[in-house]
Amino acid sequence: MILEHYVVGMLQTNCYLVADEETRQAVVIDPGGDAERIAGRIRQLGLDLVGILNTHGHFDHVMDAWTLKEELGGLIFLHPKDEPLLSDHKVGLGALFASLAKSPRGKVDEWLEEGEELTFGSIRMTVLETPGHTPGHVAFHLPDAGVLFVGDTLFAGSIGRTDFPGGSYNQLIRSVEEKIFTLDGKTKVFPGHGPQTTVERERRTNPFFN
């Protein structure tokens, strides 16, 4: 499996490229900026972009999803409860940075749901609904690789903000405890901002749970 990490956009969002080495099928998770750089890397590696996966609908995670699709193709995935964040900049936070935020130029191709399994080549991802930061926030679990992409639900030593429209602190805490902390402790956690961590490290040391 190819796994690359890029820090993109004005809010330093973590964007991830995941690809199957044999079939060359690839997905990009949370393209919140720098689409040209990401597209160039995909071309350099000779990959076929088949999916653009969004953990949630805040502009700093979806801003260049449609640009990537225009450049390389691929289906755009999002949870339906976050659809309002795409159409209303006050909800999706684009209004805070109106000069740089890009409005989606097309539709979402596939709506995500709890327990759904996405397969790209030999890569298998399970969708986990993790609301709290946004109503339709999800995480992507790769059980075979021991990897979890959590977006803005959980950070190394912290959690995502819940004071934005649609946020809920209690819901986020439940999401982490019921969907993330129940996974194998060795699972590598790749957040939407900041350094990676592990499930076990956050269970033991995260101050919001200890």
UniProtKB/TrEMBL annotation:
Q: Where is this region: Disordered?
A: 191-210
List, separated by semicolons, the cofactors it needs. Answer: Zn(2+)
Basic and acidic residues biased stretches: 199-210
Residue ranges of domain Metallo-beta-lactamase in the record = 12-193
Q: Which UniProt keywords apply?
A: Hydrolase, Metal-binding, Zinc
SMART domains linked to this entry: Lactamase_B
Which PANTHER family would you find in this protein's record?
HYDROXYACYLGLUTATHIONE HYDROLASE GLOC
Q: Which domain of life is it from?
A: Bacteria
Citing just one GO molecular function, the answer is: hydrolase activity
What is the protein name stated in its UniProt record? Glyoxylase, beta-lactamase superfamily II
